[in-house]
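pasting input
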Amino acid sequence: MTPLLSVRDARKRFGAVTALSGVNLDLHEGEILALLGDNGAGKSTLIKALSGVHQLDAGRIAIDGQSVSFRSPHDARAAGIDTVYQDLALFDNLTPAANFYIGREMRRGPRWLGPLGLLREKDMLDRWREHLDVLQVRIKDLDKPLGLMSGGQRQAVAVARAVTFARRLVILDEPTAALGLRESAEVLRLVRRLPEQGIAVILVSHNLDHVMQVADRAVVLRQGRQVGEAIPTAENHQYLVGLIVGASGGDVAAGAELPGSQDQEG
Amino acid sequence: MVVPPAEVPVVSGDPALDPDDEAPVGSAARRRALRWGLGLVELGPVLILAVLVLVMGTLSPYFFKSNNLTNLGFQTAVIAALAIGQLMVILTRGIDLSVGSTVAFTGVLGAVVGGTSWGGHLVPVLAAALAGGLAVGLINGVIYVGGRVPHPFIVTLATLGAIRGLALIISGGETKTTIPSGVLTIGSGTVGIVPVSIIIVLGVAVVAWVLLARTQWGRWIYAIGGEPEAAKRAGLPVGRLLISVYALCGLLAGLAGIITAGRTSAGAPTAGNLLELDAITAVIVGGASFFGGRGSVVNALVGALILGVVRNGLDLLDVSAFYQQVAIAMVILASVELDVARGYLEERLRVLQGAEGG
């Protein structure tokens, strides 16, 4: 079966720093994949490449077996990939619905008006409510700016936005990092429901508990390459921690890599 | 090679929810109080304006005379036009310091065209002034965006000087008085007791309000000011939007230039000095946030009126211009402090809501 997403030998440098030195990754339809790794392991760079923020120096990204090249977040979105960033990328001064539709607002009036067309606020609000119902997300205070909402509500808005517009893949960067227990549980519940909608998920998280609760498979990056993967279960917990900190698995430091993939570290 | 010591992820036990994680008693009341306080801050500028009008009206018997109200309108029209443009710029976290110079430049430009063979007609003179303003705004926007300058302050500081220089060059340093009658009507005509200039500016305000509050363009302008990085990630055409905002601000400065020329019957290269500061003051005093993303055309108009009423009232009360400056400074400080207070209250409210599990 052709994977929904496949990444081959992805490389990216920032000046003297090598962020990705040959990452391979496959993701199948409806799968929830956890991307693990310590700070600086290359997780952020990888997901930014997948969401069109960064362009790879070398390597190949394919969706349904077709090579793609994302020049901007817009391209990635057009290919059905939507990303929720750690810092949320929400607009505190706008209402939840305005955040939801930002850049994709419904408008009326002739086409040639472009963005000068009037917003169809009511239609957007109605449609948005339907989406929230499908995702079983409850948002209070629909007319207040998002800045007045709690972290969990804001995260729910961000995730709901990505999920609604992403047709294929949602990338979640630390979706629970800033949240309390109850709020985290709400967001994780939402994540677990995504495969029902036929959407695959890449979940970046430092929290192995959360990963074990939702992910089908965990891939570990270290120093810009994939060092191993496992089913995130309680039994594999220690193994995964070992991979993350570099105490077990494909040992980069010892040079136990395939020949030709050696790379100076920055 | 040494693998850097890494923090092992903290793994807690069962993440079952804590049933005691309930909101403390009385937080609903505190939240209500915070919401009430926020509402008061939002209303602040309108309340300040109302109090000022009452005080001035009580202290001076002339304040509510129709002559004086007409005069107040004349004084406010130019600042209001500039404030609407400045508001759009400030909404995107920007600033445009060049509008005072643009008022002089476009007034002179209008007068120069007014001195040519088609100078007797309103349309070419008006078109020249508005096009001149639009051009200055486009230059500001293109240099700011295209030059990847981190903040428009320096760009518009440069054009402040350059455009004033251009006004002096094309006028030869002299005040031009070749102003067609149509422009005089725009600047100093009245309908009943209402100045034509105020009617025009109110019309412009309605258009600006629709643009900002009802169109996709306006939504995007607020988005840029709210979170510029997120706007980029959302794929908004940030560069073009910013250029459009500076272009509109310049266009409105051109309108202010025409109104000023019509009011003074002259295109003076020295006109509009320091008007950019009045415009910025009006926006902030009116309750828009200097930090971008918040505020409406109503804020700009209220701010322009506050400035107008303070100056007009203190004039009527024979308060020296020196003290007027101090008074206006106080109003500015109070407004910025209100903006800060708003941020604080919102933060409190958010924390309180987070504690309640949102």
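fyi Confidence is low (pLDDT under 50) at residues 250-266 of chain A.
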